[in-house]
UniProtKB/TrEMBL annotation, chain A:
It is a multi-pass membrane protein. Keywords: Electron transport, Heme, Iron, Membrane, Metal-binding, Oxidoreductase, Respiratory chain, Transmembrane, Transmembrane helix, Transport. This is Cytochrome-c oxidase. Residues 52-555 form the Cytochrome oxidase subunit I profile domain. GO terms for cellular component: membrane. Its main location: membrane. It comes from Haloterrigena turkmenica (strain ATCC 51198 / DSM 5511 / JCM 9101 / NCIMB 13204 / VKM B-1734 / 4k). InterPro entries: Cyt_c_oxase-like_su1_dom, Cyt_c_oxase-like_su1_sf, Cyt_C_Oxase_1, Cyt_c_Oxase_su1_BS, DUF6789. The chain crosses the membrane at residues 6-25, 67-89, 109-134, 212-235, 255-280, 312-330, 339-358, 370-389, 401-428, 440-464, 476-501, 516-537, 622-645, 665-686, 698-716, 722-749.
TrEMBL record, chain B:
Residues 70-142 form the DUF7979 domain. The lineage of its organism: Archaea, Methanobacteriati, Methanobacteriota, Stenosarchaea group, Halobacteria. Pfam families: DUF7979 (PF25934). The keyword Membrane applies. Keywords: Membrane, Transmembrane, Transmembrane helix. Residues 1-25 are annotated as: Disordered. The chain crosses the membrane at residues 155-177. This is DUF7979 domain-containing protein.
Length: 759, 189
């Protein structure tokens, strides 16, 4: 398969899905509501002038909240792109051979997956959250340098495009090739995403793919953007705090952003320099990283001197969010605030002293290596302090079920596993064995997936009412976050298991005995993917359709004295906007309340309806049976087309009643039974089947009778065909059951559970 | 998948009241239908996706010519110093025409890669890696991707597709259930 086209089409599908959701949600807003009134809210058509004004506004804004949203939107786009890479990696690994995509493609995929996720997804989203909330939390009017802030953001889109120009060029080339002669396009087609690993180790990164140059330039540009952002955060926290906020009561998230930014301004310039040196090596014949010159190991030192701090650059804001959000949902103050701050500072300092643990197998002097082992184990201590403080915060708390809480608890769980495996990796003899295996992939994904995106999701839910003035769909959110926890656990624990079996990483092919575990990991990763799509849907749909919040305190923070400054800001804003606090409804009712039936008054009044009903029931049953059977036939026809269901068995049906074996006769008999025997049985048996609603009862009924069908019509299928046969039999019956029950309900037939039935 | 789920927000209870959040799931709702059924649905979709991808791929791979065209790389031998001394050398004439075309393509390409579309006579040797002299230059030529054909049962495709459809049904159970319940309610009145 062509990788670039696949990727771009998948991306397009997601984007179109999002747009569709928005359009539908906007349309639904203006529709009449069931009580005959119209939903309030003005229905506006988006005119060209307005679109233009919006475009100008969003591209020129220097407001920290708007820039924050831009950052978040950009990061989301990158995350989807990198996520599609991840799904393609996992799909590739479904089979032991490289036969869905080539080895080259596989290498491109994991290279760009890693880079996109680390550089273009995680950092921008955290900077976005920081931009939006940090000034609100510290009572500042805006960031210290609003224009610089805007520049910092606007460097990112071009840098992403540069870094991933390979795909853009390939797809453009492939599409132009339809109308333009191929030779003209050789320039475009020469670009191909680098397949050198995200660490860009020479000599691979010195190979002559022109796209590698653009990748390096893009990374360099994004590094500049990140540094600008970091400087801005530091200046904001230091100079723009409200008078009431000193260092002692600076909130934990701002502390984390401050320390993160400090790491940024020490780490990123170094990456930039190293990237420039690599570019010089590639294009101007310098020899920093070639064997004749400085040697490939030099690159590894420089890269990891940035790389390990980078790990904490993306990890610390996540812990900040955890420390901020978790207490709100357990009704207790963060335990050991001071120690969390100290541990953050300690991590910031130590993170520069551990880089060589990524290079244990490159032959560093053993004594130096041992000292790196010591610092690497030492850095676990401040991380553990954080975990203990989180657990203590939860301890005895008044835990309230909500999506952010699920994510926080899930995060702590996954982080403990990821962290403990990390300590093992810091031990040289263990690392020597596991360094090149999936153990490492499992370890770092448990951390970077388990806490970073989790906390972003948690923040998105927690602050959703503040940003949009509406509530997201909370049922869906609870479901989505549980799904994310389950999916991540399944995927990355499986990768750990593969690592324990010493399955080497970064190979496009593998021995067949690992394929079972790879399938499990792939299923897990698709679960993650689906839950991410659900989150996207929830965010977009609720923006238009969510219930408006009626209080500035949707999380009952006042009750536990955690009504932090950003919510106070929100309360002020609501007051200013609406003048008066919004009123509340007297009472609320759930979306569905079972109706209370009245009993017929007299004996006569009972007999006549029963008789009448019996008749109408039979009619409704027959009609329902007809609809159901016809629908069922459709499903069975598909099964016939697939060759898993033998129509012969239908013909044999006729012989049961002494008719010749003929397909038409058999089918008529089938239809007849579907209209008489089975509906009547349903009407009389339905009472004993579970389900409050006729529909549910119908499904249960269908499931029961499907077993009989399966035995009666079995014609010796085996293996996959048998599975398919079973699935189709079940499906056909469910459809029958739904059709039957639906028709009966529609025609006003009696509910199987009549008035005496248990409620 | 996401589009047709339309929560009927008109009779949805408010998410918050003056005291704070209202429980997301009302006690009258079944947990099975709100959470368990969609979970099963997601599981089905996640299993169905890989199944239908590999199943569908075997169906299309021949039609689209996606398999059986190995890729080779050609690296100028002087990049290897003397380490190629022990590698077998074969004359360019011994290459099949498809192999020669691929070699030319690889030499021209900035990525040093070419696809062999046709007879691969020297498969065994190329898998090992050989030195070929071509127009005066020595190249180290090797197969980098066999592009072997995928072999699984095509029946996986419909199974996967059905699993996905059933899964979508499962995911949409909560809103569908609420719709159906409303429908039944109206019918009964
Ligand atoms: C849906 C979630 C994800 C899945 C299924 C996934 C899957 C994978 C797999 C299978 C690999 C290994 C490729 C190989 O070496 O053979 C990989 C590598 C990598 N992933 Fe992810 N990933 C996910 C999310 C993330 C996130 C959120 C990040 C960063 C924030 C990330 C960063 C990386 C990096 C840096 C590598 C390169 C590892 C190396 O050094 O080989 N991934 N991913
Ligand atoms: Cu490290």
């Amino acid at each position: 398969m062509n990788r670039a086209l696949t990727e771009v089409s998948l991306f397009a599908v997601v984007v179109v899905g999002c747009l569709l959701t928005i359009v539908l949600a906007r349309r639904a807003r203006g529709e009449p509501s069931p009580d005959g009134g119209y939903a309030t809210g003005h229905r506006r058509e988006l005119s060209l002038a307005e679109a233009k004004a919006a475009a100008v506004r969003w591209t020129t804004t220097t407001n920290h909240r708007e820039i924050g949203l831009l950052y978040i939107a950009f990061g989301t786009v990158a995350a989807i792109w990198g996520g599609i890479d991840a799904m393609m990696i996992r799909t590739h690994l479904l089979t032991p051979e490289a036969n869905l995509w080539t080895e080259q493609t596989y290498n491109e995929l994991f290279t760009m997956h890693g880079l996109t996720m680390l550089i273009f997804f995680v950092t921008p989203v955290f900077f976005g959250i920081g931009n939006y909330f940090l000034p609100l939390l510290i009572g500042a009017d805006d960031m210290a340098f609003p224009r610089l802030n805007a520049i910092g953001f606007w460097l990112l889109p071009p840098s992403l495009l540069l870094a991933r120009l390979g795909i853009v060029a390939e797809v453009t080339g492939a599409m132009l090739a339809v109308v333009v002669p191929g030779e003209w396009l050789s320039v475009l087609l020469a670009f191909q995403e680098p397949a050198i690993g995200w660490t860009m180790y020479p000599p691979l990164s010195l190979a002559p793919n022109p796209q590698t140059n653009f990748l390096l330039l893009g990374l360099h540009l994004s590094g500049i953007a990140t540094t600008i952002g970091g400087i801005n955060f530091i200046a904001t926290v230091v100079y723009e705090r409200d008078e009431s906020i000193g260092w002692a009561n600076l909130d934990i998230f701002s502390w984390n952003m401050l320390i993160t930014s400090a790491i940024v301004i020490f780490a990123f310039p170094l990456l930039g320099t190293a990237l420039l040196m690599l570019l010089l090596d590639r294009n101007f014949g310098t020899t920093f990283f070639t064997v004749e010159g400085g040697g490939p190991i030099l690159w590894q030192h420089l890269l990891w001197f940035w790389g390990h701090p980078e790990v904490y650059i993306i990890f610390l804001p996540a812990t900040g969010l955890m420390s901020l959000i978790l207490p709100k949902f357990v009704g207790r103050k963060l335990f050991g605030f001071k120690f969390i701050v100290y541990s953050t500072i300690a991590i910031g300092v130590l993170s520069f002293g551990v880089w060589a643990h990524h290079m244990f197998v490159t032959g560093v002097d053993p004594r130096i290596r041992a000292s790196f082992m010591a610092t690497s184990i030492a850095i676990a201590v401040p991380s553990a302090i954080k975990v203990f403080n989180w657990i203590t915060t939860m301890w005895n708390g008044d835990v309230r079920l909500a999506a952010p809480l699920i994510l926080c608890v899930g995060s702590v769980g996954l982080f403990i596993v990821g962290g403990v495996t990390g300590i093992f990796l810091a031990v040289i003899p263990v690392d020597v064995i596991y360094h090149g295996t999936y153990y490492v992939v499992g370890h770092f994904h448990l951390i970077i997936m388990g806490i970073i995106p989790f906390m972003m999701f948690a923040a998105s839910y927690y602050w959703y009412p503040l940003i949009t003035g509406r509530m997201y769909d909370r049922r869906l959110a609870i479901f989505q976050s549980s799904l994310l926890v389950i999916g991540s656990g399944l995927t990355f624990m499986t990768l750990m298991a593969l690592g324990f079996l010493e399955h080497p990483r970064r190979y496009a092919t593998y021995p067949a005995e690992y394929s079972g575990l790879h399938v499990v990991a792939t299923v897990g990763s698709f679960i993650i993917g689906i839950s991410v799509l659900m989150w996207l849907y929830n965010m977009l749909w609720s923006y238009f359709q969510g219930t408006p919040v009626e209080t500035a305190d949707p999380w009952e923070l006042k009750a536990t004295q955690q009504f932090t400054p950003e919510w106070q800001w929100f309360e002020d804003r609501l007051e200013r906007k609406h003048g008066i606090p919004p009123s509340e409804p007297e009472e609320v009712r759930p979306s569905y309340v079972p109706a209370q039936e009245e009993r017929p008054p007299s004996l006569y009044g009972r007999i006549v309806p029963v008789a009448r009903r019996a008749l109408s029931d039979a009619g409704a049953g027959a009609a329902g049976g007809f609809v159901g059977t016809v629908l069922m036939t459709g499903v069975l026809l598909v099964a016939v087309a697939l060759g898993v269901f033998d129509p012969e068995s239908f013909a044999n049906l006729a012989t049961l009643v002494g008719l010749p074996a003929n397909l038409a006769l058999g089918y008529s008999l089938f239809l007849f039974a579907g209209m008489t025997v089975w509906p009547l049985l349903f009407l009389s048996l339905g009472e004993y089947l579970p389900g409050e609603l006729t529909f549910i009862t119908g499904l249960w009924y269908a499931t029961v009778i499907a077993s009989g069908f399966v035995i009666a019509f079995y014609t010796g299928q085996t293996g996959l065909e048998l599975v398919t046969y079973l699935v189709f039999a079940l499906l056909a019956h469910w459809i029958y059951g739904l059709g039957l029950a639906g028709m009966i309900t529609y025609l006003g037939g009696r509910r199987p559970t009549s008035s005496e039935g248990p409620r | 998948m996401s589009d047709d789920a339309s929560p009927s927000d008109a009779d949805e209870p408010s998410a918050t009241d003056s005291t704070g959040p209202v429980e997301p799931t009302a006690s009258s709702e079944s947990l099975v239908l709100t959470y368990a059924a969609p979970f099963l649905g997601v599981l089905l979709i996640s299993v169905g996706l890989p199944l239908s991808i590999v199943g569908g791929y075997v169906v299309v791979q021949d039609g689209l010519g996606l398999c059986g065209e190995p890729a080779i790389t050609a690296t100028p031998a002087d990049e290897y110093d003397d380490s190629l001394a022990t590698i077998e050398e074969i004359p360019a004439e011994q290459l099949s025409s498809a192999e020669r075309e691929a070699l030319e393509e690889a030499i021209d390409s900035p990525l040093q890669e070419g696809r062999v579309s046709g007879e691969l006579e020297n498969r065994a040797a190329l898998l090992e890696g050989v030195v070929v002299e071509y127009e005066g230059t020595h190249y180290y030529v090797q197969i980098t991707s066999q592009n072997s054909c995928l072999e699984v049962q095509p029946l996986l495709f419909p199974i996967g597709a059905v699993a996905i459809l059933m899964g979508i049904g499962g995911v949409l159970t909560p809103p569908i259930y609420r719709k159906l319940a409303g429908f039944e309610e109206r019918m009964r009145r």
